[in-house]
Amino acid sequence: MIDEKNLIEGKTGKWEVILGLEVHAQVISNSKLFSGAATKFGAEPNTQVSLVDAGFPGMLPVINEYCIEQAVKTGLGLNAEINLKSVFDRKNYFYADLPQGYQISQYLQPIVGKGTIILDLPEGRRREVGITRLHLEQDAGKSLHDQHPTKTYVDLNRSGVALMEIVSEPDMRNSEEAAAYLRKLRSILRYLGTCDGNMDEGSMRCDVNVSVRKPGGELGTRCEIKNVNSIRFVAAAIEYEARRQIEVIEDGGSILQETRLWDTNKGITRSMRSKEHAHDYRYFPDPDLLPLKLDADWVAKLKAGLPELPDPKRTRFTSEFGLSDYDAGVLVAEKETADYYEVAVGSGPGGRDAKLTANWVISELFGLLNKSGKSIEQSPVSAQHLGELVGLIQDNTISGRIAKDVFAEMFETGKAPAKIVDEKGLKQVTDTGAIDQAIDDILAKNADKVAEYKSGKDKLFGFFVGQVMKATAGKANPAMLNERLKAKLGA
Ligand code: MN
What is the pTM of this model? Predict the structure, then answer.
């Protein structure tokens, strides 16, 4: 089905954009895929390199079982087939930071086969995208061109680090879907604890395959934009590349299958090299490694031990807490936020109002976190304290208005809400006598306005409320004040 909204208008009519993504996700593991060397980010160059990673002759790779477990978990989290037999191949190419002269990867028999991922799009729209495969492979080292005026240095710390290459079907049709795919994939990887999804540090890198065609026509030739390192750039690169291809074709040219680079400064893609084909790499099974065979029971055990993932968690948040699909979606997008919410809302008879708690997390907490550039793990307000604050609103100790001031101070000082309310004497006035007294004072002082009100100027009601609130320093219980004021005005 072609969605008209996705089509791009060219000189010769409308065009459809076809997108597939390949993501290299670094496996969370203390050691490398085939060696015991460490994988810590940011270590001094060449301090985390074993002889295997440096490609010394005669060294033998030994598979890291934990990395296999991480890949299988990821496959299960993507609702994918787990292949009980997979094979490691040598992908041969020469590069200065690839001392072996080949990368150990998986070609014809990857560890994970077809799966699916559900995209969360604006206005609550959802769309399923196919996963073609996930395979395990080694990362290469890194060439450093900025250390010396005439020399290139090589850092092999990354050489041999385990990567999961996750390939999607060409199911996406616009940059918004590609961005949603990356956000959802990253969320699932983080929930699973199999990749930290940190694009700045290169632990998640994205190659984008872009082609265009006349709606419903034959697939066009695709270009691959390599190693785009932020979701925003992925979207920008797609917008640019689709336009470029349409213009080339409409001007009578044809698209060459090639690898392109996204130039962040210029906002364009440019040609890097003509696309190599699989046969260029002379893949063959690595003779140093036996085919990898997994035990079905072991896979079943991993499946049973998977954490609750974002899609089922969102469904549970709507049914268990009565939240809207939108609010639940916002709360489950990051595991840390979902965990925070669940602690704040509490459970059982002492539980807080779920919708009110969600509002406080989504508007107030997110607002101050954004402003201060902090993540939820760095929040000065603990989930426990936020829950207590909601509790104080719920039992009428403070009004929602006062709660905002209390919250600002909690964020500033990390103090418990009850302590702030106590220290500052912010407890709501719920004593009818005191409220009546304050109302009587205001009405006596404004006899003229009372008369106007009684002759039909209803809007003055708000004025009286404001005056009483002012007189009580905002502490009068709003519902009570409304009720008493109405009674006294004979409304
Ligand atoms: Mn790869």
Answer: 0.88
